[in-house]
Amino acid sequence: MMAAPAVQIKRWTRREYDRMAEAGVLGPDERVELLEGEIVTMTPQQSPHSACIGLIDKALRQAFGPSYWIRIQLPLVVDPDSEPEPELAVVHGSPRDYVHEPPRTAV
Fold first, then answer.
1. Are 90 and 107 spatial neighbours (Cβ–Cβ below 8 Å)?
2. What's residue 1's pLDDT?
3. pLDDT, position 19
4. Which helix (H) or strand (E) holds 90?
5. Three-state DSSP class for 82?
6. Phi, psi of 72 (to 5 degrees)
7. pLDDT score at 55
8. Other C-beta atoms within 10 Å of 41: how many?
9. Neighbour count for residue 98 (Cβ, 10 Å)
10. Is residue 87 within 8 Å of 33, Cβ to Cβ?
11. 54/1 Cα distance (integer angstroms)
């Protein structure tokens, strides 16, 4: 009979992750995201990165127009165990369409 490994990794669901944020376990200033059940720390941004995001945002707004929302570093529901915050995501509609739940797909 094989023994259980001494170290086991706890995989988190999106629901558990959201509850931790609501309870203050994950502070609003913590740069983390949920990827495949793991809470991952995101690296701080530098000026070139921020400038690049701004330039891409402007280009995407011009390319897609008002029927789309260009989301910058906001949650995107991928599956029950992942809620990444991509640098940019283009989604159909406007912010009002996502008041109660983040988008599940991006263009």
1. yes
2. 66
3. 94
4. strand 88-92
5. strand
6. -110, 115
7. 97
8. 9
9. 17
10. no
11. 57
Cβ atoms of 53 and 72 closer than 8 Å: yes
Both tokens of 58, joined, read: 């402007």
Residues 6+ apart with CB under 8 A from 88: 53, 56, 57, 60, 70, 71, 72, 73
pLDDT in tens, 1-32: 667 778 888 999 999 999 999 999 998 888 89
pLDDT at res. 8: 84
28 class by beta-carbon count within 10 Å (0-12 exposed, 13-18 middle, 19+ buried): exposed
Q: Show Cβ contacts of residue 31 under 8 Å, excluding neighbours closer than 6 positions.
A: 41, 42, 43, 44
- 83 sits in the region (left: phi over 0; alpha: psi -120 to 50; else beta) called beta
Q: For 39-77, how does the pLDDT look when each residue is reduced to its tens digit (9 = 90+)?
A: 999 888 889 999 999 999 999 999 999 999 999 999 999
| DSSP 8-state code for residue 19 | H
What type of residue is 25? Answer: V
Tokens at 63, concatenated: 């390319």
